[in-house]
Amino acid sequence: MKSLWAIRILFLSLCTLGGYALSQVRPEYVGQQHGAALGMAIGFGFGGLLIALDEMLKGFSLRAFSATTFGLLLGWLVALLVEHSGLFVNADEKSIWLIRLCLFLSFGYIGIVLAMRSNKEDFSLIIPYVRFAQRNQPENFLLLDTSVIIDGRVADLLETKLIEGLVVIPRFVLRELQQLADSNDPLKRVRGRRGLEMLNRLQQNSKIEVRIHDADFPEEHEVDSKLVRLARMLNAKLFTNDYNLTQVASLQKVICVNLNEVGRIMKSSLLPGDLVTLKIVREGRDKGQGIAYLSDGVMVVVNNAQSFIGKDVEVQIQSNVQTGAGVLIFGEIHHPPAK
User: Fold this and answer.
1) Distance between CA atoms of 328 and 300, rounded to whole angstroms?
2) pTM (2 decimals)?
3) Helix (H) / strand (E) containing 177
4) pLDDT of 105-126, one tens digit each?
5) By three-state DSSP, how is residue 308 classified?
6) What is the pLDDT of residue 56?
């Protein structure tokens, strides 16, 4: 953004100098008392108008510009055909220019609107056997925040091709990771270094394309707000572990994937009758009960398992109970039938 404003200031200065040079050669300005100042003001105003127009068209993509140009040319072609169709041969010479102006403005506007509303497949009706395809560009952008980079599960998902796309790491997220890695707090320092290691792992994988995005939003002070704005600008999917960021992104119509929610959905569910091998770690609340845990931390209450504490046993699931703290599973020691 700073380099863009430097170019704008340079362009504005050149326009001002061009206005001054013009005032020295135009006869209507030469010799006047304020001719040079007037020429510089005209050049400055011209440059400022173009910069204001550039700021207004900030969200206007090259694809939209090409579609607009094509629609404008198509509309003017139709207007030219209507003008030469002989419908206005009896029109007054003084009003023919007004008719031409209305024709070109009307058909030009209609052509632009139709081109903007059309998709790339509609152009094949006008230019047969031609398909406009995007080359060397992924169809989706994957925008990662600090929490999901430190977590590391997204690297596994990318390496196994469960999610695909161009990975975008904003410069302000990279700066936040560096601040964590240099922190005096040992916990923050470990988290920051793990995040940098995950980024290095992604960049070392030749099958994953990672780009550092330099966009920043100085008017936004929070990293979460910057992430949401960048996701909207790139039309990207935002990956995070932050519940609050997920809610904010959803309110602003940004596609946000919370890996914690994905992990919760992907948990394997045990049904009554299933057999699973568990280690009884302690005794339960009631007499004879033993407590075991699944790999995802879900507690299993096993009846008649108190004598098996510290041992691996085969447990048959009896029922699942949904509680306020999560799922509670009850089971029995499985005894194989006698032969």
Assistant:
1) 6
2) 0.47
3) helix 171-181
4) 888 888 878 877 765 545 544 4
5) helix
6) 74
